[in-house]
Structure formats: structure tokens, C-alpha cells
Amino acid sequence: MLLVLAGCAHRIRPAVRPGQSAIALTAGPNTSLVYLSRVNSGGLIAIDLGWWGATRSVREALSELRAQPGEVSDVFLTHSHRDHIGAWRLFKRSRFHLAAAELAAFTGKDGHSGWIPRIVEKFRRTDLPPAGALEVHGFSSDTTFVFGADTVFAYLVPGHTAGSTAYLHRGTLFIGDAMTFSRWTGFGPARRGYSDDAEVASQSLRALWPRLPRDAVKIICTAHAKCFPYKP
């Protein structure tokens, strides 16, 4: 069972260690979160890449870590909607990881099914990487990525998009848009108009909690910077 804080979001800097992790908040209709972490094996990882102003915001966050984009070895995407991939051009030397079911949308071979993304796409095409521009790896089941003594656990939560994924790193679960927040209703499942299949998204969210390592999750953050403590 998920316990949230009385229907209101708190801006918590998730699992941030000075000099080790940093957060970039990018603009757009909703604030989009980019998380950067210096991992034990050397180099850095990123989780999601924001939207408007992402390049500037990410560079500022990297400067907090005294790092350059080329030091980011791996990028993990919760999904490929435009408001989560904005800074991809900064990381052409990085390995990109996302669910195999998301690859077609990320590379422009297929589109998302949600009616809002489809309409928006008619007015302005998403800036997607052309074929061969990035090193992209897909995974088709829950997967653990090891960086020395650090880990990133990937959990498939399809429905918002075909390959929506949550990532657990250093006690924080970055849940993407599989969970959302509204000031009127509090935390809830993926929003219907933005989702490929809202019913599948709800089922995936319910199926996620039993798969999480016991006592490993301290904080949950949505892709739009709403964070709250997690208590099973």
C-alpha cells in the first residue's frame, strides 16, 4: 500500500549528496526534473532530460558537480514524451537506456497513442534523435544496472507510454509520469489524455509496489518534480 502526504507535494531534493548528485528543473507547461548522479564506477548518470531550457539547466547542474556533458556515461529515460528528452543533444557520447517497447517512439519510427501527444505532434514535431545519432539500448524486463558499488534498478510500468519505466537509485524512485500530482486530487495514476492506455497504466502502477526491494525506497519523485516519502 502506498502512503502519501495528505494530498500535497513537497519539493524534496532526492537522495542528494553534496558533490555527488544534482537536479536540474526545466521549464514548460509543467516543471520537468533531470537528475544527475556521480556514480562509484566513475563518470555520471542522468535520469530523464527535461524540456524547455533543458540544455542550460542541465549545464548548470553539471557545473555543481564540476562536470561536463561528456562525463555522463549513461542516460536513463522514463519515457520518450517531448518534456523528458529535451537535452538529448548534449549527450551524444552517452549510452541511452529505455524500455524496448519505447524504442520506436524515441527514434521516430512510431508515435504515441495518447490523444494529447498526437494533437500536439501535428502542430510541432518532437525533436527526436535521427537514426544512428545515439547509442541506444533497450531492455524488455525489470533490469539492474551496476556502476561499481552503485546500482540503478529499472522497473517496467507500461501504459502511460508503451515503455514507461521507473528507476530506483540511492533510495529514490524516479517514477516518471506513471504517477502524477494534482493540487485538487493529490497523487494519482497516469493522466488519461496523455497516456497510451490509462487502464494498463493503473494496473502497472498497482503491480509495481510488490516488486520494489523491501526498505530500499525512501522517496518517490514524479517526472515533474513532485516528491514525497514512501512508506510501505
List keywords for this structure.
232 residues, alpha/beta, 4 helices, 14 strands, globular, disordered N terminus
Rg is: 16 Å
Helix content, binned percent: 10-25%
Shape: globular
In whole angstroms, the N-to-C terminal distance is 6 Å
Write the layout of secondary structure elements.
Elements: E1 21-26, E2 32-38, E3 44-47, H1 54-64, E4 72-76, E5 95-99, H2 103-106, H3 115-123, E6 135-139, E7 143-147, E8 150-156, E9 165-169, E10 172-176, E11 179-182, E12 186-189, H4 198-208, E13 219-222, E14 227-229
Parallel strand pairs: 3-4, 4-5, 5-6, 10-13
Antiparallel strand pairs: 1-2, 2-3, 7-8, 8-9, 9-10, 11-12, 13-14
Q: What is the compact description of this entry?
A:
By secondary structure, this protein is α/β, with parallel strands linked by helices. It has helices at 54-64, 103-106, 115-123, 198-208, and strands at 21-26, 32-38, 44-47, 72-76, 95-99, 135-139, 143-147, 150-156, 165-169, 172-176, 179-182, 186-189, 219-222, 227-229. The chain is globular and about 40 Å long.
